[in-house]
Design a protein that fits this description.
Helix content: 25-40%
Distance between the termini: 44 Å
Order of helices and strands: EEHHH
Strand content: 5-15%
Shape: elongated
Number of helices: 3
Radius of gyration: 22 Å
Strand order of the largest sheet: 1-2
Structural class: alpha+beta
Bound molecules: zinc ion
Length: 107
């Protein structure tokens, strides 16, 4: 078991106390779900946040990590979409550089 007070899946720092049902509240998660025959011992238990525990449900670790990966990709894409992007298709002229400098694009 390789986690140190962070969620085994999303790595959010886990909280032990605090408001009930806080998404970061520490829970024990069965890596192989109990419903699929996973054991309730230390070989199959990890500390996970309540949010991941609920969302993982009866998914396998791989399936759930795929869900998290897609979510991270989507969040990254949305973040990128909100940032001005400049594509260079030719050499940059002094004029371009001046323009970029004026609009605050760091080079
Ligand atoms: Zn988590």
């Amino acid at each position: 078991m390789a986690n140190n007070c962070v969620c085994y899946y999303c790595e959010v720092p886990l909280t032990k106390f605090g408001p009930d049902n806080a998404p970061t509240m520490i829970t024990w998660d069965h890596i192989i779900p109990k419903a699929k025959g996973g054991a309730s011992d230390y070989s199959n238990l990890v500390a996970a946040c309540l949010k991941c525990n609920k969302e993982k449900g009866t998914l396998s670790e791989d399936e759930f990590r795929t869900v998290l990966w897609h979510r991270a990709q989507k969040a990254r894409a949305e973040k990128m979409a909100n940032q001005p992007t400049v594509f260079f298709t030719r050499e940059i002229s002094m004029e371009d550089l001046k323009f970029l400098y004026e609009v605050g694009v760091s080079i």
